[in-house]
Amino acid sequence: MFYSKRDLSFQLFEMLDSESLTQYSYFQDHNRESFEMVLDAAEQIAEKMLRPLLTEMDRNEPQLVDGRIKVHAGMKPIVKKFGEDGWVNASFSYEEGGQQIPATVLNAAAFIFQTANYSASVYPFLTTGAANLIRTFGSPALIETFTPKMYSGEWQGTMALTEPDAGSSLSDITTSAEPTEKEGVFKIRGQKIYISCGDHDVCDNVVHLMLAKIKGGPIGVKGISLFVVPQKRIENSKLIDNDVLTAGVYHKMGYKGAPIAHLMVGSNDDCLGYLVGEPHKGLSYMFQMMNEARIGVGMNAAAIGTAAYYASLAYAKERPQGRKISEKDPTKPQTSIINHADVKRMLLFQKSVVEGSLALLLYCSKLSDLIHVEEGEAKERASLLLDLLTPIAKSYPSEMCCLSTSAAVQILGGAGYTTDFPVEQYYREARIHPIHEGTTGIHGLDLLGRKITIHNGKATRIFFEEVSKTLSNASKTVDLQPFGEKLQKYLGKAQQATGFLLGLAGKGETEKFLADATLYLEMFGIVTIAWQWLSQGIVSHEKLGNAHETDQNFYHGKLATMRYFYEYELVKVDSLVKRLQSEDSVTIEMRSEWF
Fold this sequence. Notes:
alpha+beta; Butyryl-Coa Dehydrogenase, subunit A, domain 1; Butyryl-CoA Dehydrogenase, subunit A, domain 2; 5-stranded mixed barrel; two-stranded antiparallel sheet; 19 helices
């Protein structure tokens, strides 16, 4: 087992009441049965096609051969299956050939794919993001030319931002676009690096959504435009090379089954790019895809952490080692390591991280659905809250699942450090997520430097209102009152630290204000996950009384994990708040020559 079907059902239908989305006209053709059919279909593909290739794709990574990246042969039927079954455009409208499936359900299905084989899962959903940009901002001609074959899986889609000297600093990109005689068509020159699925032999074509600067445009980010730059372009109804050359493939510590390409664009002055939307608005367009991708990265991290958790849980139940501390007789049989308190601590840590992360990510997914179907104040409220939570939903699972997969390796001991078990692969694969789609440091700056204060702090006020609703519900149950009171206390500490830092900003001490933005993000993330665990605790407590034996164990497990998080994780806010309010600015005052 690489994920819990029972927990996913709990999150979707008991916690979030995803079926309530069907009251909106866009989702009205669906019901719980159709949602469960989607999840069952995902599980079938995951078990039969993705999971069997997990180790093979890791050991036989992509190679650059004669200018083309060769990937595992098993990816071709997988990509074809995703295209034929409509996964690429499943959330899009019926008019576009989609199925109008809520993001909440589709992201849950993606989670299943990712737990089975992260590398294999990224190919189709990268295409979804690229196609979504074209359909949202592109002209009818661009939509007609590119999206049908992207939906079918015949063409791959990518996001091409990063350059050798411009990673997170997109204002410094140098890829250029020069107008041609044909309106909307430009000659593109430059290079892009670390492009996921930027070239491979599974699809007939790769469609890059690429950032470039039109010559003569504004300086910095205001001069960035977005272009469709296909690997091959259509001329006279035929595909011809578009002067997008693969200069290399990066060999990574994990996530090896998906190729990461280095592209040279326009080396022979024959690369055509097609403008998406208006000139100089490319970054704002790209942020749509990036924000969707950030939730996706958090989900990827949670999925890998989940797979590692279930691998270590199975091992802990089977592996005999030692005896209980209270047992002094060496002739007695050994006990399974799951009976040792320290092993249970590591398992609880993993469970608290992955199930807390999944709860937040699916909550954010439902917010995105509400933004799509709601109007007026309800739409604005969901939008502001999602904007605030996005850096947390991306960064908390990314950072913490590096630690939780490490705990999985530790539980297996020496076996965990070998390739005989999958946890060493999960440990390597988890590490990309604090880097993907903006580093943790970037998201810390985003949260503290922008999201907390935007619209005069309205998003933050909405967040505290939502947490307060949960606190109010918890106060009605004697068993949950202590957890509500503890969260209230730490929420107050977080607000106090926020006020202190905003005071520094108000005095013009910007560097001090943002120096520990990453720690502020960590603090906010812990409080947010504690809120999600209290929400899970409330539902579990309500359901426990009338549950049959199997579900009683499930709900008891939820309540115990909530207790663990409050005892072991939430208390870390104390030291973070102390640091955030300290007058010592060692990281600012430290000189480079002292290292």
